[in-house]
Predict the 3D structure of the following.
Amino acid sequence: MRVAILAPVAWRTPPRHYGPWEQIASNLAEGLVKLGVDVSLFATGDSITDGKLFSICDAGYEEDRTQDAKVLECLHISNLMERAADFDIIHNNFDFLPLTYSGLIKTPVITTIHGFSSPKIIPVYKKYNTIGHYVSISNADRSAQLDYIATVYNGLDTKSFEFNNDPDDYLLYFGRIHHDKGTAEAIEIAKRSGRKLLIAGLIQDANYFREKIEPHLSNQIEYLGNAEPAKRNTLLGKAAVLLHPINFNEPFGMSVAEAMLCGTPVIAFNKGSMPELIKHEQTGFLVNTIDEAVDAVNQIKSINRQDCYNWSNSQFSSKKMVNDYLKLYEQILA
């Protein structure tokens, strides 16, 4: 089977720091290669893969700002689509733009919808409903206007995470610094709990960081910057709990699955996919308010960290994800 994996070109695949779509494209490509599948990865030129690499740029537009994002995206997508006949199936991890080629080629296209940036993009998906093969990354993140062939949870390389049953006492916020992700709420939870909070992540909204986060930084509330994979493993594993007080219906939540792989329970606002990721009172707590989150912090020792690992390893491993997608490829081609 000849499979083309289309990754974004914002960041390297796999990403050095941030880049969840790139990370999943990488985990999928490398997992398929290990199963003997003929994989071609379309990504940035500095990407790392054991498959064949096709690229139209040396680095992603977020890492080299001299480039125009839309120009790179057009060149990148067309680079694959003009070779479509070379593949048995194309796996699109690049949002809705590649769908506009799907009616012009004979190779089937399976699209993982990694979330909807806006309801305004749904008409593109609707147009290709009858010829597209759509996969959601959680049951919560589905549009009633679209047809889906499956839900496949994002899969992590479990070997990259180390189980830690002897954590430190700090709380951890790990993710984009943005209102949607609830950085300010995490600070409030830590302050009311009287606990130390470490914050790690990409500053996506500079004004939000300056106005809502920076004034609270102290010996108790520390911002560590963006975390590389090795640092991420240590931060997640040593945390007493991951705080995930999101303000939007998150499609998945990679850091939630990553934390549990380290044995670290998660306290999250009960929105979006969180009930699918977290087993309430077994691998963490689903809460609705800051007060409930503070109460949950005080109960965190009731959670068995081995249960967190077992759950995440069984549901969110790259091995499971790759096998699930391989079955879908075979189903589509049959």
Remarks:
- The CA atoms of residues 162 and 262 lie 5 Å apart.
